[in-house]
């Protein structure tokens, strides 16, 4: 007789480790009976529920993405950041809306130089290429995040684009599997893996390819590499090199937990959309990057999001567990993203030194509570992104 999956959470001091194997397509061959498979899934789901409820961050093993592919992604990213010339970087730069050559520019896709991103009012000490799911140029709901992503030159970096395109496919498969597991975590009895399926016909995604010079190379020799924020979507699959002591996660007491890399694992966190779906049962956890050591750090967070047009509101099963009163108004994911990304414009002098505090921003109201905003504005050549 198969063992029963655990139901209670034990207190966590570090990030929990979750094995997703039972949710991978190959998993059916691993278990002797459907009942044994279901118990394995429920065990993973129960651990996920604890991780999302207590920490909002976890290590994910058994994710099915080959180590070789993950290593190649980081190698390509590092190679480009270190070896691409200033001109090559500027050739794929992010343009403010309509300000690129021939009126191009969506305010979002492309390369941002060190200090161009600002989080929580402070400039971030990193450079990055931001990619979004390519969408047709004439598809109205996506405006202005239209168009293709800009890629490094095929002449100088021929393997960059295919590497990231195939990695995107892998992350999308993993995202779907993880969302089935999260569904079961919320609805184990009777077991339900399809709570999110109606929101994931064509999931939107964002991928940031980030290079972090050491903070000691910044003018102030201190500050922050990526300011404190929550992620605004569904789940984030973080692939990072083996630098320790950089990514820090807020714990429930307001302290910081180091989310150091774990060999072969993803660091995963839940975003604001899952907080809304769960009516706050799971909170998207604040985190930041403070890269104090002397190396050049590389990370590639992949943000797996709902469909652009998905309408997000607390799920019935989560309302039932949280007193029955919705704490969040319904939002369309794409509108929410755009309001965060483009709805706030701030005036920033063009030569503001890194880590200069910017004017305070009134955070949007979320279920009557103030919640840190995720927004982007361009002014004076500075992009402001507050996740
Ligand atoms: O680089 C990292 O470790 C995390 C970056 C991050 O939190 C983000 O881009 O949202
Ligand atoms: Fe983040």
Automatic annotation (TrEMBL):
Protein name: Clavaminate synthase-like protein
Family: Belongs to the iron/ascorbate-dependent oxidoreductase family.
Any GO MF annotation of the entry: metal ion binding
InterPro entries linked to this entry: DIOX_N, IPNS-like_FE2OG_OXY, IPNS-like_sf, Iron_ascorbate_oxido_reductase, Oxoglu/Fe-dep_dioxygenase_dom
Gene Ontology terms describing biological process: small molecule biosynthetic process
Superkingdom of this protein's organism: Eukaryota
Segments forming domain Fe2OG dioxygenase: 203-306
Pfam families, per the entry: 2OG-FeII_Oxy, DIOX_N
Keyword annotations of the record: Iron, Metal-binding, Oxidoreductase
